[in-house]
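Hi R.,

Here's the chain you asked about this morning:
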Amino acid sequence: IVILVFSCKGSQKELLNLTQQDYMNRIEELNQSLKDAWSSDQKVKALKIVIQVKRMYLFLFLFFFPDNFSPESVNDTAKETCLNWFFKIASIRELIPRFYVEAAILKCNKFLSKMGISECLPRLTSMIRGIGDPLVAVYARAYLCRVGMEVAPQLKESLNKNFFDFLLTFKQIHGDTVQNQLIVQCVEIPLYLTLYSPAIDWILQCIAYRAPEVLLTEMMERCKKLGNNALLLNSVMSAFRAEFIAARSMDFIGMIKECDESGFPKHLLFRSLGLNLALADPPENDRLQILNEAWKVITKLKNPQDYINCAEVWVEYTCRHFKKREVNTVLADIIKHMTPDRAFEDAYPQLQSIIQKVITYIYDFSLLFSVEKFLPFLDMFQKENVRVEVCKCIMESFIKHQQESTKDPVILNALLHICKTMHDSVNALTLEDEKRMLAALINGFIKMVSFGRDFEQQLSFYVEARSMFCNLEPVLVQLIHSVNQLAMETRKVMKGNHSRKTAAFVRACVAFCFITIPSLSSIFTRLNLYLHSGQVALANQCLSQADAFFKAAVSLVPEVPKMISIDGKMRPSDAFLLEFLCNFFSTLLVVPDHPEQGVLFLVRGLLNVIQDYTWEDNSDDKVRIYTNVLHLLSAMTQETYIYHVDKVDSNDTLYGGDSKFLAEINKLCETVIAQILDHLKTLGKEETLKRQSQLALYLFNTILAHGDLRNNKLNQLSVNLWNLAQKHGFADTKTMVKTLEYIRRRSKQPEMSHFADLALRLPLQSRT
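And the predicted structure, written out as tokens:
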């Protein structure tokens, strides 16, 4: 329409899609073009540009009025052009095209006078009376209301006039002319009436926008005069504020009862009323009567789709204002209507919505699962993906709202069933993200289950959960952590009273972990859980079980692959293995030797595994691990270890500084150092000299911190390592200086005079 009015051609058609800023930029471009044309003596081109700019300014004025725009801002030429457009529109013979074209440029009246729009709106409203077809007329009124709200939202009288005029002509729908047309076109009256709804809804929404409550009363009275027409009543309830509708709920119910159901079904009216009551509360004394009146109509519906569309809305009202008895009654009625002929299969979205509403208002799960028909309602979700989504929704609500741990058997049985449904949906095609989400929900439930000091019942629950959720590794990991925590809690509660029954229970916890860990696929998860479970067994004085965990960890190290998947990407495993072994060494310090296995049997076994493990050619992790072994062996030579496990005698107590034990440690130290030195020799090539320097200094610092430098061999080794670190100029001078200063400070401490001799033997080499 706008293109027709302005008769735009060529480049001006392209301008229709530009923003205001784009127009301004275009004008600046034309300005520069005008200057260039004038300076190059192209007078005709310059004149054409002037004409084009003039048209663009007018176009810009029409569609981007400033806030302070007034008719006085427009020159006479523009006013004359604008008036000419309106004269041309007035000459259009056909009523409907003339109406729509004038309505489309209604805003242009601001060019002519301040009162132009307020004078035109009533005239255009009256013009619509000449449209004979009531359906065409109502959409014309809807368009005029739309334009009116855009250009003059304060002129409410015109909106009201359009609606009241429509009411006066509404009886045309039942006249012979319309009825005969419907017969010819084979259109039923209920279907025909639905065509009016969008237009009427829009008109009423414009009227109801920021309207006072008294206007609703006036609309209701006019609807009553028309015999409570269902179509109009539905639009009124859809347009006005929910608070206004809710306050008059019983009045609307009375009007709905008196409506003629042949043209517009009553259940749709009750649905519209229910939508309002979901947003605003009716008077408290009317709430039960409102529900009863609505459900009398809803429960009589024979069509399952009509029924569920209406019931879905009123479930929220029921949950919001009533207790479990009423909610149970409503759910039972829905099951009754939707079960025959498996009608529920066509109503999964509505049924899902009902579940969401129920758990939104009833988030006390002991109360929720006491609603007798809640679980039977869930049985209607036969389609797997829908059933799983519903289960996820329920579990999310439980995790969000459950504040305290629970042991309620009703809750546990119901949620175990729901979690089992989620777990059983996992197959080979399930995405990893979906698995993680399901595992997180199940773990959230497991964490909320507590039987207090009934530890045996708690363990039984974990055993049952393991059997139900064996396909989700994160759940098994959580169960292992939970059982380990249970074992530690048992130890705290018993406070040292280790009866046979308590010891047997702890061993049962340990056995649970030992059996479950091998089923996990992630090798580092298994390693860390073996270590953690072994620590728990050790803390509970289950020494043989702790040994079993640590042996299992040692035997698993050779299986560590060179590359592992981290967040979907393949990464080297060396750093993870190094971290694990360092943690393992810290634990081995307090693990007592088995009387039948020999001295330091776990340390020796681990060293053999490290020796046989195939390391990357360009990796120095093996040397770093050996260096950490030296830290461990040094700590083992102390008369009293720096930390202990309560009520567990470590090797410092078992051996009491025995010379044979210390000799074994010294032999191991010599073996480990020899391995390190062999590796340093392999780094003598030019491309590996920097690594050689770093590792030499690393071993030097280890000897400095943990070795007895009064030993001549060790003292000489440290000097050699110092020289090797500086030999090829790769040592950091600042680091070497600070290290030497540290040695000199240590030499001033009691019984550290040998550090002074060492410092004299450690030269600082210049790089020049």
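The two ends are 87 Å apart (CA to CA).

Let me know if you need anything else.
M.
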